[in-house]
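hey can u check if this looks right to u? its 321 residues, i copy pasted from the old doc so theres a chance i mangled smth
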Amino acid sequence: MIRHKNAILSLLVALAMALFAFSSETYAAATLDGIKLWAFNIVPSVFPYFVLTALLTALGSAARLAAKCAALTRRLFGCGGLSGYAFFVAAVSGYPSGSKIAAELYVKGLVSYTDAYKMSGFCSLSSPLFILGTAGAMLLKDRAAGLAILCAHLFSVIFTGFLLRGKRQSAAESYRPLPATNSADNLLYEAVYDSVISLLVLGGIVTICFVLIRMLENCGAFFLPVKFFTLLFGEETLARGFVYGLVECTTGVGFAANSLSPLKIPAVGFLISFGGLSVMAQSLVFLKKAKIKTARFFLSKFLHAAFTFLILFSLSFLTPL
């Protein structure tokens, strides 16, 4: 089974290489678009948070914050107090910071595997900067719609975490303290080094996704999905943006923003909460590194996106978004 899967993947990679060779100018432009998105959107919004959260974790500050959140997070998410810290940082900094924090806390022995497994789902959020600024103000040109998407996005992920919380974490939590370090310079170096490596990997994933979208489009792979979602949404522009967004969120939101469909805002909310294959791949870089199973992560992302869509769809009947 594994041999057959590897053979199929090898064939697809070889096909992608051939397409790139025959249309190098087209795919080089797509590569540049991916690099621009990474450099001008992802790096400014997440790099400082990567460094600062790494410093907080290494200094032991995150563990001390756990006691303040423990009672609430046990009831809400069935997890220890550190999940509250991780959720807050993820909600502020956006994808894929939550996955990175969940993995790091587990690797450093600050949370149990069960907690990290649960956190991988409800700590996967888009940043307010992206939702309000990029999606709302710049792409949709509607700040009110951006605010509605943000509220639905946050409520849905909290509800999803509550729905999947399972057994509550006991009050008697034990954390293994981090080894003391006497060198602040060393802490800063390690935090910056790890953050830079992580960002470079993320940039590569985003760029590959941009090229993949262009290849799939040129090969006609989007034809049937676009037709299917056109039947659901009643408009091809929104359908095409939705299909693109399932691969790379920002690209899809940009296309969907040109739609005149009343389902535009709920569809954009779904894409932002789901994140697309690009966000999935970025998150899995960290989750797989910590050997955290991803089944719950995928389920959480789908439920999060579905609840966001339903909330925004319901709001569209109450007030025009």
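Confidence is low (pLDDT under 50) at residues 171-182.
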